[in-house]
Amino acid sequence: MENGKIDVLLGLQWGDEGKGKVVDVLTPRYDVVARFQGGPNAGHTLEFEGQKYVLRSIPSGIFQGGKVNFIGNGVVLAPDLFMDEAKDLEKSGHELHTRLRISKKAHLIMPTHRILDRAQEAAKGKNKVGTTGKGIGPTYTDKVSRNGLRVGDILENFEAKYEAHKQRHLEMLKALGWTDFEGFEATEKKWLEGVEYLKKFPIVDSEIEINKLLRSGKTILCEGAQGTMLDVDFGSYPFVTSSNTICAGACTGLGVGPNKIGNVYGIMKAYCTRVGSGPFPTELFDETGNTIRDLGHEYGAVTGRERRCGWVDLVQLRYSIMVDGVTELIMMKSDVLDSFDTIKACVAYRLPDGTETRDFPYEIDNVEPIYKELKGWKTDMTKFTSPDQFPQEFKDYIKFLEDELETKIGIISIGPDREQTITL
């Protein structure tokens, strides 16, 4: 029997590239869908059959009957939020208990982690990262400092373990001088209900199950959360998330060898956005930026925060393609640029000393983008069904991007619906 392969789907910018929709378009080709990192700070929005769903922890393959979905060991899981999300999906008729498996080695986000998140952000003052306050950072900190509480811990002697971790956190909060515990009791009560709810699902050694599925010839799609530029090693540090969002994170977040990775699909927008603090070289502060935000509905799926908008940054994208080993690009939200006379793309940076570079530098705080201007296509593409309908200017934009990025674009999205997807 030939072994199966794991294909990986990643965001290449600062998150919010539209991964949820793409997973939903690609999942019919796969037997298994797995999440390998991140937590409920990232929302994947899917729209089909007139319904809109936002998934935070549950893999987007849940809507395809008969697929196995995994929450991998690299994910951090909040039982209360997971319970809300799962119950909502079940209300809308999507049966979860037979489709979803959860890794014993995934770490739990405790109620006190959320308070620590707020306390630590407040302590940073003007240097704050702009976290979602969902406790992600403190949970990963506990994991790395070997103080974490894991999903497998709920199966035995859980109360004592939970109390010990909670006391440790309360000591830390005391040291930070934090006194705001409003609503904590209600949150904790619901969280403990969530823990009981988790027990209704298969809690498994996911690395063993996934490798067995691969050996039996099954195909797996790994779904990344956030984007490459939020990777804790290669992103715009310290304004990053706490996990490895790059392709290599799929190996550590699921327990598979690098030789099992097949295709790496990199998702980019036809422009660029960023949420929260941190450098963003091509950010637009003018009417154009506002227009992109309004046309693209650039507001966070989980937080509703306005996203910062700018032109596409090819220096940044080349870097992401390199560290991820991208084999094929998927371009989202092309339709947002339908009405522009001129489209710009950053092809190089001017550094503070006046030199130019096409390589992504250590610091991007004070680089100046060097743009190439391209003619806009001035065509409403949202109803198109075939690449033959694309106007010449849009075909030119695609070719320009492929040449600059040395990677082919395989799928183009021209709207939020599952149907508005064109394969080249």
Note the gap between the termini. 32 Å
Mean pLDDT: 92
Q: What Rg is obtained from the alpha carbons, in whole angstroms?
A: 22 Å
Structural class: alpha/beta
In helices, the fraction of residues equals: 25-40%
Question: What percentage of the residues does DSSP assign to strands (E)?
Answer: 15-25%
Oligomer: single chain
Q: Can you list the strand order of the major beta sheet? A: 9-7-5-2-10-1-11-15-19-20
Q: What secondary-structure arrangement, pairings included, does this model have?
A:
Elements lengths: L5 E6 L7 H8 L5 E4 L8 E5 L2 E5 L12 E4 L4 E2 L1 H13 L8 E4 L3 E2 L2 H14 L11 H9 L13 H18 L8 H15 L4 E2 L1 H10 L4 E4 L24 H7 L6 E9 L2 E3 L12 H9 L12 E3 L1 E2 H11 L3 E5 L9 E9 L5 E2 L10 E8 L16 H14 L3 E5 L7 E3 L1
Parallel strand pairs: 1-10, 1-11, 2-5, 2-10, 5-7, 6-8, 7-9, 11-15, 14-16, 15-19
Antiparallel strand pairs: 3-4, 12-13, 16-17, 16-18, 19-20
Structure at a glance:
The protein has 424 residues and is an alpha/beta fold.
Structure description:
The chain is α/β, with parallel strands linked by helices. 30% of the residues lie in helices and 21% in strands. The protein has helices at residues 19-26, 79-91, 111-124, 136-144, 158-175, 184-198, 206-215, 248-254, 287-295, 314-324, 392-405; strands at residues 6-11, 32-35, 44-48, 51-55, 68-71, 76-77, 100-103, 107-108, 203-204, 220-223, 261-269, 272-274, 308-310, 312-313, 328-332, 342-350, 356-357, 368-375, 409-413, 421-423. It has a 10-stranded mixed beta sheet, with helices on both faces. Strands 14, 16, 17 and 18 form a 4-stranded mixed beta sheet that branches. The protein has a two-stranded antiparallel ribbon with strand order 3-4. A hairpin with a 5-residue loop joins β16 (342-350) and β17. α2 (79-91) crosses α6, α3 crosses α4 and α3 (111-124) packs parallel to α5. The longest helix is centred in the middle third of the chain and has 18 residues, at 158-175. The chain is globular, with a radius of gyration of 22 Å. The model has no long low-confidence stretch (mean pLDDT 92).
